[in-house]
Design brief:
Pnp Oxidase, Chain A; 159 residues; single chain; alpha+beta; seven-stranded antiparallel β-sheet
Length: 159
């Protein structure tokens, strides 16, 4: 018997995570979303994994371009996390007014984060209503210092 989604959601609130913004560009359209389902897969070859809901604009752009960027947010970037978590509707430009840059793929990355990964999708796995994107890291950068934005039990906290 499957677990009730509300019970699973309640339990998962106690999983402490960092916060990332995943961005992609396809056909001259750029978009992004807040993603906590992100992890390192391998250092050799350099690979990471993200999980995106299939009904999102970001999912569609990653699927089309096979490229995406990951910005690991720093403490004090709660407003950006909230903006990309849906407080700015999916059909609007969430990147408007934010300073961005690119590395290799052309996917926008957000300034003032802790780290940035530019990625090329090498494998996908459809699971339920999500797609797992396994990607090769084409380029990576990190800030010299800083503290991460951390999410726990429906709120931001400090380590």
């Amino acid at each position: 018997m499957p677990t009730d989604p509300a019970i699973l959601r309640q339990a998962m609130r106690f999983w402490t995570t960092g916060v990332t913004i995943v961005t992609a560009t396809a056909n001259n359209v750029s978009h992004g979303m807040t993603v906590s389902s992100f992890t390192s897969v391998s250092l050799e070859p350099p690979q990471i994994l993200i999980s995106l809901a299939q009904n999102t604009r970001t999912h569609d752009l990653v699927e089309k371009s096979r490229m995406f960027g990951v910005t690991i947010l720093s403490i004090g970037q709660e407003e950006i996390s909230n903006r990309f978590a849906g407080r700015v509707p999916d059909e609007l430009d969430r990147l408007a007014g934010l300073e961005t840059f690119t590395l290799v793929s052309g996917a926008p990355l957000l300034r003032n984060g802790l780290a940035w990964l530019d990625c090329h999708v090498v494998s996908t796995i459809v699971s339920g209503l999500h797609t797992l994107f396994i990607a090769e890291v084409l380029a990576a950068q990190s800030a010299p210092t800083g503290a991460p934005l951390v999410y726990f039990n429906q709120g931001y906290t400090k380590i």
